[in-house]
Amino acid sequence: TRLTVWGSLVLLVVGFATVLVFEWGNPGTLGPLGVAEKILTAFVQGTIPRSGGYNTVDYNAMDADTTAVVTGLMFIGGGSASTAGGIKVTTFFLLAYVIWTEVRGERDVVVGRRRIAESTQRQATTVALLGVATVASGTLALLALTSGVPLDRELFEVMSAFSTAGITVGLTAELPGSGQLVLIVLMFIGRVGPIAVA
Q1: Lowest-confidence range among 40-54, 85-99, 101-115, 133-147?
Q2: C-beta neighbour count of 162 within 10 angstroms
Q3: Nearest CA to 72 among 23, 135, 114?
Q4: Are 109 and 98 in contact (CB under 8 A)?
Q5: Three-state SS across the chain?
Q6: How deeply is 143 buried, as exposed, middle or buried, from its count of CB atoms within 10 A (0-12, 13-18, 19+)?
Q7: pLDDT, tens digit (0-9, with 9 covering 90-100), for 28-67
Q8: pTM, whole model, 2 decimals?
Q9: Is 48 exposed, middle or buried (0-12, 13-18, 19+ CB in 10 A)?
């Protein structure tokens, strides 16, 4: 619960700040809006990649640095008990604690004065690595089936499918049937979960 609540708050702030700062002057997104509208739109667009499925600005018009952060937020996804996709907030922050513990040379991973069992750490690692492998395989498959499409657009669509975020840069409609089938498979894996599918 602690990882989910605090992790979600951190990701809300990161998503909001990223969109607000990177898109502030972008004429295709937040640029033409007033200050209050910019803040509201940035909050919505910083939250949507982890939960929603709609957009209030065109993702095609966003700067590459913003879409890179949005892609990362989609991969993380929502809370463990939610219907949001991704590897889940708890998994992401548990792995951050595992890394922090290893960097500090400590023996046990402790979150809020509670030791995290090695089986839980293994499960989190498995979910994250299967997620990375699924996204990498899907991206390579799309690259093989299409030509002339920038990698960042294909990765964005693959990540959206895997995380079941439901947002797009408009590439899905342009894909051949085989590419759309790849996205369908990714949506299924993302919804069911990589461990369950494996």
Answers
A1: 40-54
A2: 28
A3: 135
A4: yes
A5: CHHHHHHHHHHHHHHHHHHHHHHCCCCCCCCCCCHHHHHHHHHHHHHHHHCCCCCCCCHHHCCHHHHHHHHHHHHHCCCCCCCCCCCCHHHHHHHHHHHHHHHHCCCCCEECCEECCHHHHHHHHHHHHHHHHHHHHHHHHHHHHCCCCCHHHHHHHHHHHHHCCCCCCCCHHHCCHHHHHHHHHHHHHHHHCHHHHC
A6: middle
A7: 999 999 999 999 999 999 888 887 777 888 888 899 899 9
A8: 0.89
A9: buried
pLDDT at 164: 86
Euclidean distance between CA atoms 102 and 95, whole angstroms:
10
Highest mean pLDDT among 22-26, 52-56, 79-83: 22-26
CB within 8 Å of 67: residues ≥ 6 apart: 59, 152, 156, 169
Give the number of other CB atoms < 10 A from CB of residue 182. 24
Output the pLDDT for position 172: 86
Identify the band that residue 82 occupies on the pLDDT scale cut at 50, 70 and 90.
confident
Contact between 126 and 90 (Cβ < 8 Å): no
- Rounded Cα distance between 77 and 85, Å, is 5
Output the six-digit token pair for 36.
């209050």
